[in-house]
Amino acid sequence: MSIEPGPEAFEPRLLGFLCTWCSYTGADLAGTARLMVPSNLRAVRVPCSGRVPPELILKAFDNGADGVLVLGCHIGECHYDNGNHRAAKRVPTLQSLLAFAGLEPERLRLDWVSASEGERFARIVSEFTEAVRRLGPCHWRWAAMQPEESHLESAGGRR
User: Fold this and answer.
1) Where are the domains of the chain?
2) Whole-model pTM?
3) Spatial distance between the Cα atoms of 2 and 126, rounded to a whole number of angstroms
């Protein structure tokens, strides 16, 4: 007799791209204040939320992330003037692409956290963790969506 683990046993693997000027500092504040933040988020410090290319987000899912969180400065507070505007356009477009490719768009989230918002950071990570936990493990891979090399050759494609 085997006992299957229930859905509550699933701990999502989350990757977060955090703006160095605001969100990363907000995360640091959450840690310094000893706020309860789920430990399954792996944070990547980036210069700006607008500098996170879609390919990197797709690669995160390819490498086993169950969810990806992009956190930047609040609109109007970007250190690079309009980087968060770029992210605000890019992420919804990528969510649409992911939905078209068969992945729940809720697995990718964009939000804003300032350097003084440690509690907000903790709340966003907790909410996102719960949302992804409800979705279950992500088995989708972008690489599986790409045509195989042999198909390209038979169609006259370049090597």
Assistant:
1) 12-154
2) 0.85
3) 31
HSE, CB side, 13 Å, CA atoms: give it for residue 90: 20
If DSSP codes are grouped into helix, strand and coil, which group holds residue 46? strand
Q: β-strands 67-72, 108-112: how paired?
A: parallel
Concatenated DSSP letters of 8-41: GG----EEEEEETTTHHHHHHHHHHTT----TTE
Cα–chain center distance at 9: 21
The CATH number of 12-154, from 3.30.2130, 3.40.50, 3.30.60, 1.10.357, is: 3.40.50
- The series of mean pLDDT values per 10 residues for the chain, 159 residues long, is 58 97 96 93 97 96 97 96 96 96 96 97 98 94 64 53
